[in-house]
TrEMBL record:
The keyword Repeat applies. Keywords: ANK repeat, Repeat. ANK repeats lie at residues 92-124. This is Uncharacterized protein.
Amino acid sequence: MHTDPNRHSELGRTALHWAAGYRLPNQETQDSQVLALNSMLELLVSDDGVDINAKDEAGCTPLNLACRSSNYHAVQMLLSQDKVMVDEADNEGRTPLHTACMQDNEEIVDLLIKNKGDFFKVTNNGETPLCLACFYGRDKIVGTLLSSCSDEDRKRMLDVS
């Protein structure tokens, strides 16, 4: 019997959405729950038949959900795939970088920047990742964003924000 890994739930989510978006209480420990989830993620991400950019009802991809739940391992695994769309926005216009800035996860912000996450994308409300980091008081994220770009891009980022 074959199960379709791209089958959608009532929320429009696939198995990869659920696995990537699952928030573990402590991802540093290697208990059976963490090991099982990581094994499932590896299996799904390595399957060429799995749509790693599938969108749910809210327009979220598995990468968006992994950023929302601060699931570093899932973000890392998804970004290792050439097919992943780093700047795919949800229905609100938020990219994974917007979401990571809101969640105050500096490690994930760094990963997204290293994988060419776009500093200048704006949400449907005209907010850049820098705007959201400032709005939510994410001082370290603001510093990370500003220090990760050229002087010219930094000026442009401040002008846009």
